[in-house]
Amino acid sequence: MRDALREGFAALQAGNTDQAGECCRRVLEARQDIPEAHFLVGLVALELEQRRTAISAFGSVTKIDETHGPAWANLARLFMQTGQTLRADNALAQAVEHADDNPVVLDLIGHVHTMLGEEDEALKWYSRAVASQPGSVPFLVNMANCQMYVGDLEGAKATLQKALRLSPGNSSAHWILAGLRKAKDRDHVNEMQQLLESARYPNRAQAFLWYAIGKELEDLEEWDAAFEAFSNGARAKRNTIHMDEQAEIDMYKAFEETFTQEWMNSTPDGFDSNAPIFVVGQPRSGTTLVERIITAHPDVTSAGELKQFGNAVRRLSGYSEPQRFSAKLAKGAAAVDTKKLGGMYIETSSKMAGDTPHFVDKLPTNFMYVPLILKALPNAKIVHLQRN
Q1: How far apart are CA 63 and CA 77, in angstroms?
Q2: What is the DSSP string of 18-84?
Q3: Angle in degrees, CA 90, 58, 31, rounded to 5
Q4: Are 335 and 263 in contact (CB under 8 A)?
Q5: What is the per-residue DSSP string for 310-358?
Q6: In what order do the strands lie in the sheet with 276-281?
Q7: Nearest Cα residue to 143 out of 167, 173, 170
Q8: How does pLDDT run along the chain (388 residues), one tens digit per residue?
Q9: Helical H runs in 169-222?
Q10: Burial 112-123 (b: 16+ CB within 10 A, else e)
């Protein structure tokens, strides 16, 4: 059985999911209580984007071996991806307890903290993963992305340069690097264009490179070329997204029908805090500029684009759908205790809020939660940007 497992992991490493799956089948037909066989099933399911199967497989691992850190870490990420925030909290706690300095587990824990919007905490885990395996390009890229979010731009640049020395064609590293500084010349643009011409990248990687090229061409005021690059990036990105138009329509209808004046009048008062200032609106509507204007005041800290309000809504409503917003979310959110909601948001945002009397939460899509914010935090300020 050990030979079959080794063969299965080697097959998965080589990209042969059919062979890896066959090895799992042979092992599990002989014995059902081998955690690594179930773990391999989970990894194969991840490769095939079969999240339910992966959750079931990693769950089987943790039933057999409650100390299996990699399975708990994968479960935490999967639960976040499928909207099951409460189950993610539990799995994350187990992963932390059983991490055992496994760099893969450390990196996954960092990723889950990123998904929770806890970038400072995420950076600690990414840094541990890189310290444990300094030659891992994915770990370096994740760490650099997090360094950028916490404002360590020089640190992010150094980390990306190391990643690109190890893997010159890494699309994610090029994309993050393009966002760290304003382009002064075409050197990096030419390098990325050569990569696109010389290698076959999947759609997601193509999108990263085209968006990075577009951003730098925009810096250089080459408007037509920038627009073409952004169009190419959007086309590649669109091929990776499934859009359910009817679900979108149902969602907005549910929000409109649920959060009425009658709901506002019948909902008890929320949490008493005037610290938050929410800057919301559609992307590219001026939210970043307005945030910078407000945070120029010495009494205000920029907390960044926090995911804490949405996560609090999901925790308190027991929401467990993969869609971040849906008709079901609207109906469940309307029934939450708004005072608890406001209190949970303030508590989970405290690390990012700084020591000033006020902080700005600049997550544009919080516009979806405006009615809930008004009830959960009646003394908070909301600045809603609209395109004109």
Answers
A1: 18
A2: HHHHHHHHHHHHH-S--HHHHHHHHHHHHHTT-HHHHHHHHHHHHHH-TT-HHHHHHHHHHHHHTT-
A3: 135
A4: no
A5: HHHHHHHHT---SSSS-HHHHHHHTTS-HHHHHHHHHHHHHHHH-SSSE
A6: 300-302, 358-361, 276-281, 381-385
A7: 173
A8: 677 888 888 888 888 888 888 888 888 888 888 998 899 999 999 988 888 899 999 999 999 999 999 999 999 999 998 888 888 999 999 999 998 889 999 999 999 999 988 889 999 999 999 999 999 999 999 999 999 988 899 999 999 999 999 999 999 999 999 999 999 999 999 999 999 999 899 999 999 999 999 999 999 999 999 999 999 999 999 998 888 899 999 999 999 999 999 999 998 889 999 999 999 998 888 998 999 999 999 999 999 889 999 999 999 998 888 778 899 999 999 999 999 999 999 999 998 888 999 999 999 999 999 999 999 999 999 999 998 7
A9: 171-180, 187-198, 203-219
A10: bbbbbbbbebbb
DSSP state of 189: H
Q: Which amino acid is at 360?
A: V
Q: Could you tell me the two tokens for 265?
A: 């009048």
Q: What tokens were used for 139? A: 């770990």
Q: Residue 214 is encoded by which pair of tokens?
A: 């577009």
Side chain identity, residue 11: A
CA distance 120 to 297: 23
What single string gives the DSSP state of each residue in 354-370? -SSSEEEE--GGGGGGH
Q: Are 167 and 199 in contact (CB under 8 A)?
A: no
Distance between CA atoms of residues 211 and 214, nearest Å:
5
The two tokens of residue 27 are 């092992």
Using DSSP bridges, classify how beta strands 276-281 and 358-361 pair: parallel, antiparallel or unpaired.
Answer: parallel
